[in-house]
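User: Sequence for Site-specific DNA-methyltransferase (adenine-specific) below. Tokens please.
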Amino acid sequence: MYIKSPLNYTGGKFKILDSVFQAFPANIRTFVDVFAGGFNVGINVEAETIICNDQIHYLIELFQMFQATDINRLLERIREIINTYQLTQQNKDGYYALRSDYNKTGDLTKLFVLTCYAFNHQIRFNNSHEFNSPFGRNRSSFNSNIEKNLTRFCQALQQKNIQFTNKDFTELDYLKLGPEDLVYCDPPYLISTGNYNDGNRGFKDWKEKEEGELLELLDKLNQTGIRFALSNVFYHKGLSNELLIEWSQKYQIHYIDKTYSNCNYQFKERDAVTVEVLITNY
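Assistant: Structure tokens for Site-specific DNA-methyltransferase (adenine-specific):
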């Protein structure tokens, strides 16, 4: 049974973990999760060492707090915040009071509680790095499922050998890696803009320049005998990533939805579907 991240992060891979892991090699010494996001992949990987990286430092700081804090103390602190602000699925004023206080203090537990009551549990910031997700009226709350997911997630963080870094993908040190390791990349999708990569959140956006830099990096890893796996989409809502499609022909293409594995990229219904792939060099 897979561990589910307590963060509902855009582009999370929890629902397709089976397909992703089927394409992973059996033995991994060091697993590098370059664009960790909600960390659904990295937390479930079997490896001697797991490196969790993301350019968004709020995510890394949350994970580090989860790793360093006793789960019972963390749950107690969460309940204190919920009681202090009288948070419910209907109390908009309490939510916005908490949001205002978090933006003044940067308290990480308050940030997590905010995500529980935010619209679609979204983590979203403005250009000034202020949390600005709206209230999730009648939908969002800290419930028993989130508590269960948080507990299992924290236990895994504390039991596994997980190290954290907060760097751009171009700044990571790949030189220490060897043929027994695996570099996993789940970058923002060039043809599917999420609120984390639209350039309006105070973080680096994702355009063709960044896409090209990543593909070039993966080519270099391949040349030095380091295994990689890249999650991405060929088609999405009528758009196609021609740069990725052409580049991928050098490697192994694993279709997440197996019905597209024999397509020639010219099928009529492509406007209506998302073709998700995992590209590997092994």
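The first helix runs from residue 17 to 22.
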